[in-house]
Records
---
Amino acid sequence: MSFDSENSITGKLLDEEKPGKERALKFEENKKIELREYRCPLCYKLFFRAKITSALIEIKCRNCKKVARIKSLEF
């Protein structure tokens, strides 16, 4: 898997857009990974897309300089 300058994923993963906040990556074996968007709560700028099972992340928004904490416990 590699990333190019337009932030699209190339290689064995096929990028499949879905409307809304969820994005699915489809493997060749028809397995899907649901990616959730994490955004700044103040200015709604996108931080990143990921599937996080257990984490506490602290991130500073580049746009509004607010420090946000992301707690995720998905199973």
---
Amino acid sequence: MRVQKLTIAAVAVAAGLSLTACGSSDSTAKSDPSSPASNSAATTGGSGTSGSTTGGSGTAGSATGGTGSGSNTSATNGGSGSSGSTTGGSGSNSAAKSGRCGADSLTITASDNTIKNDSTRTVVVTLKNKSGKSCTISGFAGVDLKTSSGTISAKRSGQPNAATTLKSGAEVFFPVFYPANDSGGSGVRITGLLVTPPNDTRTVSLAWPGAASLPVTEGGGASVEVGPIDSAGQGS
């Protein structure tokens, strides 16, 4: 009889434990709505990630805009620089077009310019640009006197001046110095003047406008000198 009571009690305890376990399981199952909450949080996190992506796009757009602006500005400035270089080239061409004053572009004449009783006589040679355009000239012209005893070449005297740009119709000058024949004799008769412009090989023959003769010297030739272009002056 006692054994039966113990058995029944054991069964009752087992049944109670079984019911408690089931209730706990159901409760856990009913409390499971927390899972949707987790899903909701995950969804919210995803939205945050999406927002971050949008922010990244904004940054990329800003970087692209900055780069484009800088490149265009640099290219524009570079183009202007190239134009300036072209202008410089035009300047060089303009200088080249002026050219040198040669025998074919000059009208060359000579006149007496001696001061009365001066022991050193002077003839001034005039070079006039007849070409119709500007040309440059500098240095010394070649000068030779034709005489009864042969040709006498003039020696250079003084320092050359800076190059002169001679406009059409403009003139420059240079002097020829020679000694007066005060010996009382016939001396060496002068028959003509030969002028060769600087940097040219063509010679222009002119009538001699000065004194008729040169003094005879022991060396066989009088001292004749030519001054630099654009320095016409009196003898000393």
